[in-house]
């Protein structure tokens, strides 16, 4: 489900769970563990995906088979993954190698930098379209990145964006020509930082990320239990099942 490659001082963690790198409980736990180890063993980290598809987000098909306890446990694990990314002690860059909707872009909000491949790809937080609501920590991370009004314009209608549109509002930081160039550029971005005096770079980085980490400690009206309640509501269940039926017909 993950491919680990060291490019000198930069460790690449590539999502490789066919067909769409959807995040199920096992992948979320494994990615969290590998990131924690990379923070101790490498000087920078690149998280990439399969060519043409970084990640389709949460594995709705698998999660619809979970009971209430399973969904509660999964959402807690997913939030732990986000916090692990936010607290990475080394620069962590996302090479968005293709489509990155919903959970695919969500995890990147907590990294240092986002580079997306050019092409007919989509990204954005489309949770409302499938009957879900993002947690406050995700909303706050998005506002931190793009500003309050653009964040509202993305989240409320659940908009999906092209790479150019995502770049225009600051949801991503760069566009590269193709998926592999995206990975190469992410590695080069890390290497440029690593060429700087290490301690001043890391301390300055930590200073600017303190607010991001602090979001996890704030009072959160959207708790794990609230997510679980919404997940099992009739409206959300009907919407998710209808979405899966449409996908099966494609």
Can you offer a commentary on this structure?
This protein is an alpha/beta fold and 250 residues long. It has a single domain, classed as 2-enoyl-CoA Hydratase, Chain A, domain 1, CATH 3.90.226. 52% of the residues lie in helices and 15% in strands. It is built from 11 helices and 9 strands. The protein has helices at residues 25-41, 60-63, 68-86, 103-108, 136-146, 148-155, 163-169, 179-194, 198-214, 224-231, 234-249; strands at 2-7, 10-15, 44-48, 52-53, 92-96, 98-101, 113-117, 123-124, 174-176. Strands 1-2-3-5-7-9 form a 6-stranded mixed β-sheet, sandwiched between helices. Strands 4-6-8 form a 3-stranded parallel β-sheet. The chain is globular. It starts with a strand and ends with a helix. The mean pLDDT is 95.
Number-wise, the strands total: 9
Name the CATH architecture.
Alpha-Beta Complex
Helical proportion, percent range? 40-55%
Write down the secondary-structure element order: EEHEEHHEEHEEHHHEHHHH
Instruction: Kindly report how far apart the N and C termini lie.
Output: 25 Å
Which runs of at least 5 residues are low in confidence (pLDDT < 50)?
Answer: none
CATH topology: 2-enoyl-CoA Hydratase, Chain A, domain 1
Strand order of the largest sheet: 1-2-3-5-7-9
Per the principal axes of the C-alpha atoms, what is the gross shape?
globular
GO molecular function, one term: catalytic activity
Protein name: Enoyl-CoA hydratase/isomerase family protein
Pfam families: ECH_1
InterPro entries: ClpP/crotonase-like_dom_sf, Enoyl-CoA_hydra/iso
């Amino acid at each position: 489900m993950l491919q680990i490659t060291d490019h000198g001082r930069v460790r690449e963690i590539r999502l490789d769970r066919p067909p769409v790198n959807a995040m199920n409980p096992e992948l979320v736990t494994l990615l969290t563990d590998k990131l924690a180890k990379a923070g101790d063993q490498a000087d920078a980290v690149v998280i990439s995906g399969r060519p043409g598809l970084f990640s389709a987000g949460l594995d709705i098909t698998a999660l619809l088979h979970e009971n209430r306890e399973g969904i509660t446990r999964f959402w807690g694990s997913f939030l732990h993954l986000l916090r692990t990314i936010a607290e990475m002690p080394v620069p962590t860059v996302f090479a968005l190698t293709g489509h990155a909707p919903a959970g695919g872009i969500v995890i990147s909000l907590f990294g240092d930098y986002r580079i997306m491949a050019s092409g007919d790809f989509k990204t954005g937080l489309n949770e409302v379209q499938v009957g879900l609501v993002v947690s406050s920590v995700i909303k706050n991370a998005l506002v931190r990145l793009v500003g309050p009004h653009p964040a509202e314009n993305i989240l409320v209608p659940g908009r999906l964006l092209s790479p150019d549109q995502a770049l225009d509002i600051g949801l991503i930081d760069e566009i590269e020509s193709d998926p592999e160039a995206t990975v190469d550029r992410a590695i080069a971005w890390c290497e440029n930082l690593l060429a700087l005096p290490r301690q001043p770079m890391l301390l300055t980085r930590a200073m600017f990320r303190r607010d991001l980490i602090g979001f996890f400690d704030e009072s959160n009206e959207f708790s794990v239990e609230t997510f679980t309640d919404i997940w099992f509501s009739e409206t959300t269940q009907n919407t998710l099942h209808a979405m899966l039926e449409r996908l099966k017909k494609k």
